[in-house]
Amino acid sequence: MNKRVSLKDVAQHVGVSIALVSYVLNGQEKEKGVSPEMTVKIRKAIAKLNYQPNLVAKGLKSGKSHTIGLIVADISNPFFSAIARVIEDEATKHGYVLIIGSCDENAAKSRHIEDVFLNRQVDALIMTPAIGSQRQIKDILKRKTPVVLIDRYFDNLKVDSVRVENYQAALAGVLHLINNGRRRIAMVTYRTELLHFRDRREGYKAALAQNDIPFNPGWIVEGSYEKLDHDIATGLGQLLRTAGIDAIFFANNTLAVAGLKVLNALGIKVPDQVAVVSFDESEAFDLFYSPVTYIRQPIEAIGKEAVRMAIDRIQGSTADSRMMTIPATFIVRESSGSK
Q: How far apart are CA 258 and CA 19, in angstroms?
């Protein structure tokens, strides 16, 4: 068995002290006055000798594991898989390893993943919280483990969070449909207490109110996470057959894909008969005969800001909890065309 390369081996190879190598490994070369030439030399030696730091020993010594845990709602959703990649890349740049779990919108499963991550002594948690997980988050904060929420938030919980401006984005999407001559606009959303979906619903209602279009609760179709396709097929199908709907605003990409299946099954032409706007994008939109207009969330900005907030807390920031909202981008394509 080959002997594990140590910090001492790297230092002897370059002909410098162990401390100097340590400064470079920890990104402290400028702070400690290591010259750029020596920094390059040490990094080349690290690569040549294939030095791998002993993170367990390092963690025991420093009290830090240099690991961040990420819990997403559903890793199969393109939004969450994309943001996980951004967070992983950003964490790596700062010397952290990312471990990922998917809670499938289940608070009990989220609790289990949190316990596993905390037992592995992660330095911080970044998460999209499930319904009913407020108590869990409070418990984590009591343990002094930093937490950053992404995509979602709770009104009564003081915790760092990063999310898109849901209300304004939804308002813009529905106003676009109205400006294109649509007046009988349905919304497809989840049957949920999550506040970001509430904000999107309020944006929908505000757009109607601004144009003197009466809000009709019967034009809101709600689906459950467990029986999504069935709920959307039943609720949206009935609405399309009976209410003369001429546009649909989908509250996220998964709902949009389920809804487009219903439109196809009923032979309804988009946008000739019914215009469509979706919150979030999906690769499936490119396969639909009428490319779908959608609200693009700033995935890269959300991921980078979440990592920055987490590292600030890891490094000892005691500032008040921060709630950052980032504007979305509206991508107009064929599905929302005017009459």
A: 58
The pLDDT of 169-180, averaged and rounded, is 98
- pLDDT on residue 227: 94
Going from the C-alpha of 101 to that of each of 114, 204, 214, 264, 268, the distances in angstroms are 9, 32, 43, 34, 39
Positive or negative, the CA dihedral 327, 331, 332, 336 is negative
Q: Which residues pair with 97 in a beta bridge?
A: 67
Spatial CB neighbours of 265, under 8 Å, sequence gap ≥ 6: 233, 237
Q: Tokens 């003081």 appear where?
A: 158
Query: Would you say 128 and 104 are in contact if contact means Cβ atoms under 8 Å apart?
Result: no
Q: What is the mean pLDDT of residues 246-254?
A: 96
Residue 173 phi, psi dihedral angles, 5° rounding = -65, -45
DSSP three-state, residue 126? strand
| Domains of the chain: residue spans and CATH | 7-53 (1.10.260), 61-163+299-326 (3.40.50.2300), 166-297+330-336 (3.40.50.2300)
Whether pLDDT at 245 is above 80 = yes
Residue owning tokens 């401006």: 165
Phi, psi values for residue 335, rounded to 5°: -70, -20
Q: How many residues does the chain have?
A: 339
- Residue 56 pLDDT class (50, 70, 90 cuts): low
Question: Edge-to-edge strand order for the sheet containing 275-279?
Answer: 220-223, 185-190, 247-250, 275-279, 293-296, 329-331
Number of C-alpha atoms within 13 angstroms, CB side, residue 219?
21
pTM given for the model: 0.80
**List of E strands, 117-208:** 124-127, 147-150, 160-164, 185-190
Residue with tokens 């894909």: 257
pLDDT band at 48; cut points 50, 70, 90: confident
Q: Residue 147's pLDDT is what?
A: 96
- pLDDT band at residue 1, thresholds of 50, 70 and 90? very low
Residues 106, 107, 113: CA angle, nearest 5 degrees: 90
Residues 6+ apart with CB under 8 A from 298: 164, 326, 327, 328, 329
